Amino acid sequence: MISQSKVPAAEKDSLIYKLYRTRLISRLTYSQYYFLRKELKGCRSVLDIGAGLNSPLGYCKISYSVGVDIFEPSVRESRRKKVHSAYIVADINRLEFKPNSFDAVVACEVLEHLDKEDGLLLLERMEVWARKKVLVSCPNGYFPQAALYGNPHQVHRSGWDIEEIKNRGYSAYGLVGLRLKPSRFLFFPLAFWAVISVMLQTITYHFPKIAFDVFYVKKRGG
User: Fold this and answer.
1) Helix or strand or coil: residue 196?
2) In this structure, what DSSP letter does residue 138 have?
3) What is the model's pTM?
4) Phi and psi for 8 in degrees, rounded to 5?
5) Within a domain: residue 5?
6) Which residues make Cβ contacts (< 8 Å) with residue 220, sequence separation at least 6?
7) pLDDT value for 183
8) Sheet hosting strand 171-178, strand order edge to edge
C-alpha cells in the first residue's frame, strides 16, 4: 500500500543552489549535474528509477524520460514540476521492460534503499534495459538513514563498496567531498561543511575511494 502522506512543500530555490546547477559551476565542481549532462549527451530516451520529487534529470535536456517511484506523493510533485515525459508508480523490484528499451537507465541514490540481493538484481535488469549506458550513484559504503518526510522507502538498507560495482564493468568517480560524516565535526556549522564538500569534489572526483558518494558509468553496446 503506497503511503498517502504529503511530501513537504517545495522550498523556494536559493540563488546559491541555482548557481550550483549551472553548467559552468557544476563543471568546475564535478557535481552530479555535470556527470548526468555529460553522460546523457546523445541519449534520447532515459529511464529514471527512484526518481523522487525533484530528480536531477529535470536539469538535463532529454527528449523523452520516464520517472519511476513507489512513493505516490513524490510522483505527484514531480509531475507538477513536469520533470519527466511520463511516470510510473511502482515497486522497482517488479518493473519489467523489454531489452534495450531506453538509451540510458539511471538510478541516483537508489541502491542503498534496497536489500543487497534486490539491488544486484536491479543492476542486472538495468543493464538489459539500456541500449547505451547505465548510470548509478550511491553512498560509498553503508551510511544509516531513517525514513524521511513520511516516506518509509527512504531507509538505508544496504551499503555498496566501489570494487563490487566496478567488477561489473563500471567506471567510478567521486562525489560530495570526503567520506567523513559531518557529525564527527560538530564544531563546524553544517553550511560550512557543505561548502567544503563542494570544494573537495574536485579532488574526490579522481579518488572515489575517499569520496562520500560515488557516480558509476557502464557503457553498453560498444
Assistant:
1) helix
2) E
3) 0.84
4) -60, 145
5) no
6) 127, 130, 131, 132, 133, 134
7) 53
8) 86-89, 64-69, 45-49, 102-108, 130-139, 211-219, 171-178
Q: What is the identity of the amino acid at 147?
A: A
The answer to whether residue 86 sits within a structural domain is yes
Q: CA-to-CA distance for 50 and 110, rounded, in angstroms?
A: 6
Contact call for residues 113 and 138 (beta carbons, < 8 A): no
Residue 208 counted as domain residue: yes
- Identify the three-state secondary structure at position 103: strand
Average pLDDT, the chain: 86
CA dihedral defined by 155, 35, 220, 94, rounded to 10 degrees?
Answer: 20
Domain membership flag for residue 50: yes
Amino acid at 51: A
Full residue range of the structural domain in which residue 33 is found? 15-219
Q: Cβ distance 45 to 106 under 8 Å?
A: no
Q: Are strands 45-49 and 64-69 parallel, antiparallel or unpaired?
A: parallel
C-alpha cell read off for 133: 549506458
